[in-house]
Amino acid sequence: MSGNAILVVNAGSSSLKFALFRLDTAGVLNLAARGQIDGIGSQPQFKVKDDAGRALVERELEVTDVREVKDAIALAGLWLSTHFPGEALLAIGHRVVHGGADYAQPVLVDDAVFAALEKLAPLAPLHQPHNLAAIRALRETRPELPQVACFDTAFHRTHPQLADVYALPWEYYAAGVRRYGFHGLSYEYIASVLPQVAPAIAQGRVIVAHLGSGASLCALRAGRSVDSTMGFSPLDGIPMGTRPGALDPGVLLYLVGQRGMTAAALEKLLYKQSGLLGLSGVSNDMRLLQESTEPRAQLAVDYFVHYVAKEIGALAAVLGGLDALVFTAGIGENAPAIRARIVAACAWLGITLDSNANQRGDICISTTASAASAWVVPTNEELMIARHALTQVQGA
Ligand code: ADP
User: What's this model's pTM, rounded to 2 decimal places?
Assistant: First the structure.
């Protein structure tokens, strides 16, 4: 094994996010740089920051230079090798949204694995093809490097059967209509750090609230996922920035059957136009909604808090009680007022907020007398992917 760095790649439809981690002599991965190319194919922009968040580059690119993911990869690769000439890559870790029913762990990508992941594309048509485009491009340009696929679904493969099926005829389950769950890399990271940051709860009944622009909840028992609010797709569960969360399927039947909506129009409605944005008519950004005086902006915030609290109750029922609630991701880490309202709605579960600790953004935000505790733990999906990629090459 030669080399001292891991590159993490997260490729989407119009953006490429990447992070470079250096392996120190103690075997610890440290962030060296984090960047992204947005607006691929339209108005590409290139930004990279160092480990302290200082801008290393921020510039517009020509659309003719960045038409697709593989152009963005080539550009980012060139920039990284110029600015970090001392780093030799050990492996590249890729965020891949769907690992289907079989991948419960990250996997080194060979031809057979790649073909299997391509077969899963219909389950995540908006994300999987772009994730795979990045792997394909890097397998061509850097064939000597191990490419490791890390899945958003894998951490949830520990769900019991009851949390894996829908009440549909079995042929649909066999055809792949299952509750896969998502945000698994975030939950896995949180579960991996709880023994250090909150040892008293790590083996207990914990609900993790990943509240970002995408949002979901995960029920952990002794650090393993037993249920989550997202299911077959990342649309289910609690409301999000532009996705509605759980919706009566009768609404979809009505929109298709009575209003003649196409699958493409429905996809746009459910992924891009609903949630906080649709309900408020103002924004998908919780910061703007909190500042807004528009009644519908307030309604959207109320709706978010209400449904997060309601689903925490549902997962507490699954766990048979609750030892701790952990907040993470953009809203969970940065919005004390939203945390306070959610915790207040969960008072019946025995959580009492320490308002000062919550305002300060302490790790523990519940009082010492609180029967169940509340925490803020920043997530780090990129580091989780980097660790997985390293483990795969070390084990190879
Ligand atoms: P993703 O990685 O899914 O894009 P993040 O976890 O970065 O999302 O979360 C982004 C969201 O977090 C933003 O859209 C915004 O609504 C919310 N957010 C970030 N900072 C704050 C803040 N200080 N107050 C309220 N909401 C915030």
Answer: 0.96
